[in-house]
Amino acid sequence: MAAAARRILIIDDDRRVLQVFERVLERAGFDCVTASDPAKVLELLHTEPDIGVVLTDLQMPGIDGVQLMRQIRERFVSRPWLQLVVVTGNATLESAIDSLRLEATEYLQKPLAAADLVQVATRATTRAETLRLLNPKTGAAASVGDLKAVASLAGQIAGEMHGSEGAVPALGAANAEQLLRLIWQIQAVRREVFPEDRLPTASWEMLSELMSLELAGRRTSVGGLCLAASCPVTTALRRIEELVEMGLIAKEQDPADARRQHVRLTASGRTKMEQFLTRVANELGSA
Q: For residue 32, which of 14, 17, 18, 12 has the smallest C-alpha distance?
């Protein structure tokens, strides 16, 4: 990963938190920029284009973290790869939903262990760099070396899923999720693997989310899956029913709560997602 990709902007009005977070992350090899005044953040991002991750508190004087993230998304539309991470001592369902709508990739509650902070930073910076390399909005072409690095990651994930000797056990679900979000852009491969349908973006987002959760050994409810799709809830519910009819996902009643249904990939859905990951690894490798 390029050094610039490891630049993180930390925002918190508590200077003690800034110092602790900065110390932990710099010891782990990250390049940190700090701001205790949220009013200066937009200017900082303008003068520091190499920042790939913004880690912010929510409750701050003058402007809250949700408003700040909204301004960042509106001002820096040309940086769709910019990752937003929320670390707050006052977590609420409303602020979590607002953060998800602004494409925050992590929503964490204080106090946060040093190891967890480093893990979150690693996920976010890797995601920012891979998206920056291949996102056409940046106007920058990826080098052969960059493509080989992404291809290597794709191959490791495909190997891990199939239990091959080339699998890297430490890869984990976090990197799998990063690659899944990156390869949404590879439309041609997707259409070859799913020739019987043209999946709307929301459907593909939900399939990718389910695959990421399965790799992490986690599950989600119908409501949680709706949040993963960038569309209204009513549309997301319709897409879920379509995916069920296609045989790609299945709904199951939660035995502990009759009011809730969980969603999972079917064997067919997982097989196709594995095929897709393997094809992407091959395509990028040949580049």
A: 18
